[in-house]
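--- STAGE predict ---
source: upstream dedup step, 1 unique chain passed
mode: sequence only
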Amino acid sequence: MIRVDDVAKAFRIPEEAMHTFKERALHPLRRTGYHTFDALKGISFDVKEGEFFGIVGRNGSGKSTLLKCLAGIYKADQGDIWLNGRMSPFIELGVGFNPDLAARDNVELNGIMLGLSPREARSRYEHVIEFAELEEFQHLKLKNYSSGMYVRLAFSVAIQVDADVLLIDEVLAVGDAAFQQKCFDVFNRLRDEGRTIVLVTHDMGAVNRFCHRAILLERGAIVAEGDPEDVANHYLELNFTGDGDPGVRTLGASPNGSGTARIREIWFEGENGKRPPVHLQGTTLRVCARVEFLEDAEDPALTVVFENWDPVSVLALSTARDDERSGHFAAGEQAVFSLEFTNRLAPGRYSLIATVSRLGRGLEILDRSEREVSLVVQGSGAQGGLVDLPAQARIERSVDSSRAPVGA
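--- STAGE serialize ---
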C-alpha cells in the first residue's frame, strides 16, 4: 500500500531572522546566514495492505516530518513515495474547525475537507456527535468547548472517513480514560477490517499492542526495523543510554538524615550481575546500594520504594525482615546492601526512594535518596495494572443437568 524509496528532506534554518519591516529597513544590506538541518536521510520501507505499521523515535528524530511527507504536506527533496488507495491523515486534529460555528457546521465542513461528499457528511453527523459524547453541547459554538471536547469532536470526524490508508500522529491520548478506550476499540476494529494504518507515537505500549511491524528513527535515519517488541526495546535503550545509564548514580555528599551514614551509589543489576539500561519483565532484578558509615552504626537496614510517574508507590522492599539484625558497622566502613526479586513491575519508568535507617527507640534515618535513580521496565505482556503477577488460569464449562443424557 505504501512504498518509500530513499526519501530525504532538509530544512534551511536562518541563523538570524528578521521579523519586522523596521528591521529590514534599518539593515537593508544585512545578509542572513543559513545552516541546513537534515530531517530525513535516505528513508526506505514498505507497508503491506492491512498492516498496522509503527514509526517511533525520540523528539527531533524525523517522525512527524516523514508522516507529513507521506501525507503530501511536505515535498521530499529526494526519493519517491508511492501510495495505493485513499488516504486520511490524523496529523493535526481539528485543523479547519471554525470556532465561531456550532458543531454541526464544523462536522460537515471538516468531513468534506477530509474527502466525504456533502450528503455523506450530513448523514454521519449524528454518529459523530454520539461517539464524541457531545449531544448536550452540539448547539454551542466551538470557542466555548474545552480542549478535551474539541479534540474528541475532531477525532470523531476523522474516523468517519472511509480511507484505505490512515496516517496517525500521536492521537491516542484523546480525552479521558473512558474515551481513550473507545479510541483503542476503534483502532482494533480498523485493524481487524484490514485497513492499512501508519502510527507515529512515543507510547511503546501502543506499538506492542497494535503494530505488526515498526521502524525506529534516530537523527533522520532508520536504525531498527521489524518486530514491534524488538524495536520498542531498542527505542528504550537508545532513549536512556544516550545521556548515561539512569540506573547507576553516584550520589553527592549532602546528608539527608542524621549524617551517620551516606548512600554513595545506587544501581540495578540483572542476570549474572549485568547492568542493562532496560530490565525485562519476568527476569531477576537486584537493587544495590553502596553505603559508607561516617560513625559507628548498629543494625542498619536498606528500604527501597519504587514510584511510577503519577507518582504512586508501587513496590516497597527492605533488608530488615522479622527483626533480623545486620550487625555492627564501624566508622569508615563501607557495605553493599542489595534486594533481589523477580521483576513483575508493569512496563514504564520508575523512580527510586532509598532509605538507610536503624531501629532504636524509634526509626532513625541515617540517609535518604529521593528520586535520584530511575528504572526502566519493558515487557509486552502489560495488563494495565501497577504490577503484572502470574496467575493460573482455568475455564470450566458448566453442565446443564436438563440436557444430560439419561443415567448420567
